[in-house]
Amino acid sequence: MKNIIYFDIDGTLWDVSRNFKVSDKTRKSIAKLQAKGDLTIINTGRSLASIPQEILDLNFDGIIAGCGTYVEVHGTVVHNELLDEDLIGLIVDIFSRERTDLLLEGPEHIYTMDAVFNPIISRNAFDLFDVHHRRKSLNERPVQINKISYLINDPQSDQAIIDSLQHKLDFIVYPSEIREGLPLGSSKGTGMRALEQWLQQEKDIIIDTTYAFGDSMNDIEMLAHANVGIAMGNSDPCITRFTNFETRDVMDEGIEHALLHFQLI
Questions:
Q1: Is 97 in the same domain as 219?
Q2: Which domain holds residue 29?
Q3: Measuring CA to CA, which residue among 75, 137, 134, 83 is closest to residue 109?
Q4: How confident is the model at residue 185 (pLDDT cuts 50, 70, 90)?
Q5: Same domain, residue pair 91 and 45
Q6: pLDDT at 235
């Protein structure tokens, strides 16, 4: 029997907004989990293409990326849900109409439209999602796109985009200016179900207890699906009712604190 421990990235493993990278204690804690045979899994809203190398170098056993749209275990792709060409065309038309810059996120690249409507917002999006090294033009076909992300240009355009696409995509509307659009029904929770089903059916792994660390709105389904949901001390207050335990802030070694609390290390 194995435990599975799921980790969000931003605000959980590190916090780029506060210039805090993965701590030595967090690195050692993850290594201790793996040494005792537990499975460690990234579960992030970032697409695979935008996961920083520093995170990948921690050698997690699996990755759930793009809010459940992409799943791999030990390098084997278990699930990869892609937006179809017609939907991509519709998305581009609507964002062009609303003059809003857009990131189309995939497992290998982050695609952008050739037109830039607001250079400052566009640059901020590239910096926020750290996509400079994996960026390609949408005209460079073929493309593989799991989800979209954008920073709002103005509230009216943002609402017009959501109204136009709400029957095609599920939107995550954050308190900040960040928006994400996912294939209907996708979430970090659906990615967990795909991964766990694959482990049980293909590898005959018996899962003991699942734990999940998160801090944000897009972590709700992950925290609710896990047997034990753990909110970081810096979490959005809206997620705490979906959790069993609130640990310390990511900058105060919240990962290690919770793993010690549950006697996982």
A1: no
A2: 2-80+186-261
A3: 134
A4: very high
A5: no
A6: 94
Question: Residue 137 — very low, low, confident or very high, per pLDDT cuts 50/70/90?
Answer: confident
Do 252 and 172 share a structural domain? no
How far is Cα 131 from Cα 242, in angstroms, rounded to an integer?
31
CATH number for the domain that contains residue 103: 3.30.1240.10
Strands 207-214, 178-183: parallel, antiparallel or unpaired by DSSP?
A: unpaired
Q: What is the mean pLDDT of residues 3-19?
A: 94
What value does the mean pLDDT take over residues 215-231?
96
Do residues 107 and 79 touch, judged by C-beta distance below 8 A? no
Torsion sign, CA atoms 101, 87, 173, 160 = positive
Looking at residue 199, which CATH number applies to its domain? Answer: 3.40.50.1000
Which pLDDT tens digit goes with each residue over 60-96?
999 999 999 999 999 999 999 999 999 999 999 999 9
Residue 183: pLDDT above 80?
A: yes
d(CA 15, CA 197): 31
Distance CA 135, CA 169 (A): 23
Same domain, 130 and 8: no
Cβ atoms 213, 246 nearer than 8 A? no
Kindly report the pTM of this predicted structure: 0.94
177 lies in the same domain as 95: yes
